[in-house]
Amino acid sequence: xxxxxxxxxxxxxxxxxxxxxxxxxxxxxxxxxxxxxxxxxxxxxxxxxxxxxxxxxxxxxxxxxxxxxxxxxxxxxxxxxxxxxxxxxxxxxxxxxxxxxxxxxxxxxxxxxxxxxxxxxxxxxxxxxxxxxxxxxxxxxxxxxxxxxxxxxxxxxxxxxxxxxxxxxxxxxxxxxxxxxxxxxxxxxxxxxxxxxxxxxxxxxxxxxxxxxxxxxxxxxxxxxxxxxxxxxxxxxxxxxxxxxxxxxxxxxxxxxxxxxxxxxxxxxxxxxxxxxxxxxxxxxxxxxxxxxxxxxxxxxxxxxxxxxxxxxxxxxxxxxxxxxxxxxxxxxx
Length: 334
Prior knowledge:
This protein is of the alpha/beta class. It has two domains: 10-219, Spore Coat Polysaccharide Biosynthesis Protein SpsA, Chain A (Alpha-Beta Complex), CATH 3.90.550; 223-321, no CATH class. The chain is built from 13 helices and ten strands. Strands 1, 2, 3, 4, 5, 6, 7, 8, 9 and 10 form a ten-stranded mixed β-sheet that branches. Strand 1, helix 1 (20-31) and strand 2 (38-45) form a beta-alpha-beta unit. Helix 1 (20-31) runs parallel beside helix 2 (52-59), helix 7 packs parallel to helix 8 and helix 9 runs antiparallel to helix 11.
């Protein structure tokens, strides 16, 4: 793609559903950005019943360019982001989550990297935390530059994030290729793999630029949605396998790694639902097709003792992977 300037307009797209408790904080975060050339687009679910719209009207004067759109239909989070993209005017887009926190230099750092490296996508490191007061580490950090194939491999090895908010994207990449968010859960998994699939260069900024606030009541963390989330992630990776089926450079590693991701995703479900999936014909067919000759201790444990596998992985996710104040990747200094 053609080179971008380090001063291109950015469209910050923020879906909102009953987000009144976080609106003022979002304005605080954006008003402190050291990058000036951006617009803010709030897309508010029409079923919102709190004071989100009222607070936006009160606060919008704090930023120079604010749009508020009331989302039509029942297209959920993915649809809200799509509507925001359609209304955007920037050359670069960033899908920010209203209940999280970005460091002041997030936009200036990532736009600079995109311009200097001529990247299609710039992803960034982040910290999972329950506190908005956590201070990210300071200093000079590295930048990983990857080709399309290298970035897909990194995604499959969980070395790059799939979350919608952890990257800035050239708008032209999305619009020229018709890349939109799907509706329902795990919509960012499908979106991230599709945009990386169409990219020539992807960069990852090692510096943590974002606080991913772990809210117990958020859409992905409530108990009633655990089964839906786990099943959705499994379905997304099954469809992605179809997407890459004709790609000889990718499909071999994709089948093996995505199978591992699917059985791990099943741990998001409650134990009874996990066991139902582990014993299902779909799961057994997938294991036989993708991991039939694997001697990995993880795969063997899943096959012979799925109940024990569930307990072990659930503990690992809760106590280690999602540990409070932990970076997605250990930051590498420049």
